[in-house]
Design brief:
Number of strands: 2
Number of helices: 8
Structural class: mainly alpha
Strand content: under 5%
Largest sheet: 2 strands, antiparallel
Oligomer: single chain
Distance between the termini: 179 Å
Length: 260
């Protein structure tokens, strides 16, 4: 067995030791001898007080290595604050109003009431008069004449509706209301329900049935077949006025003189 000698070092180990010594010497040279180089690199004439010497002066003429103070780095702005939206002074838009609910469709009764209570004018000729005549169940010609007025008045009274807004039936040119009153007094004593002794002439204006039906057929078909003496005073007035507009005072040979 070959004894080991700790004091003997192999060649490889001696090489490594030499490298380490060389490295240590190199570091020392750089630290001591390189200080003037670094100082010259930073400036041969440093500003007094501008740095702190790393090594004390040893009487050598070379300036010692100094470390210049770091230049202050400007603060990084808070990008989040810049990117945050600025409070808006504009007024927020108001919410749009909710759409109004659609009105319920008009019922037939409401439609008839609306047509019946509308305001009409005498001798008016219009589509809305046609609508009224259709609701009244009379001949539809769109003309608010005596026949339409009579039927309108009768329907309003039956429904308990006021008739004061109905158009007034004009008296034909010539006869004044008092002249019509005189005619009725002469014919029937002003009694709308009277009949003559023979029963042929009936009512305030003493219509016979054939004349009544003929006038009603042209002006108010709803009155055709109605007993003149059983008709309402407004209906009798309307039929007398319609007859006068066609033939004048001739239908009343004796009492017609009051209309002149």
């Amino acid at each position: 067995m070959t004894p080991s000698y700790p004091h003997r070092v192999s060649g490889a180990h001696r090489h490594r030791l030499a490298v380490r010594r060389s490295a240590a010497v190199l570091v020392a040279v750089l630290v001591i001898g390189g200080a003037p180089l670094v100082a010259r690199a930073l400036g041969d004439d440093p500003v007094p007080g501008a740095g702190v010497p790393l090594l004390p002066r040893s009487g050598a003429t070379a300036p010692s290595l100094v470390v210049r103070p770091l230049v202050p780095v400007p603060a990084v702005p808070d990008l989040g604050a810049e990117l945050a939206p600025a409070p808006s002074s504009a007024r927020e838009p108001e919410p749009a109003p909710a759409p109004e609910a659609a009105s319920a469709p008009e019922t037939p009764l409401e439609a008839v009431t609306r047509v019946m209570t509308a305001t009409y004018t005498w001798d008016e000729r219009s589509p809305r008069v046609e609508e009224l005549q259709f609701a009244l169940g009379i001949r539809v010609d769109g003309w608010y004449s005596a026949a339409t007025l009579v039927a309108h008045r009768s329907a309003m009274e039956s429904a308990g509706l006021p008739v004061d807004l109905l158009p007034a039936m004009p008296i034909p040119a010539g006869p004044a209301p008092e002249k019509w009153a005189a005619l009725r007094e002469c014919e029937s004593g002003g009694d709308y329900t009277i009949t003559n002794p023979s029963g042929k002439y009936r009512g305030a204006y003493q219509f016979d049935r054939s004349t009544w039906n003929s006038v009603a057929g042209r002006h108010d078909p709803s009155l055709v077949g109605v007993d003149p003496s059983a008709a309402s005073p407004p209906d009798q007035d309307a039929m007398a006025l319609a007859l006068y507009s066609e033939r004048g005072a001739r239908p009343w040979p004796h009492c017609g003189r009051h209309l002149r």
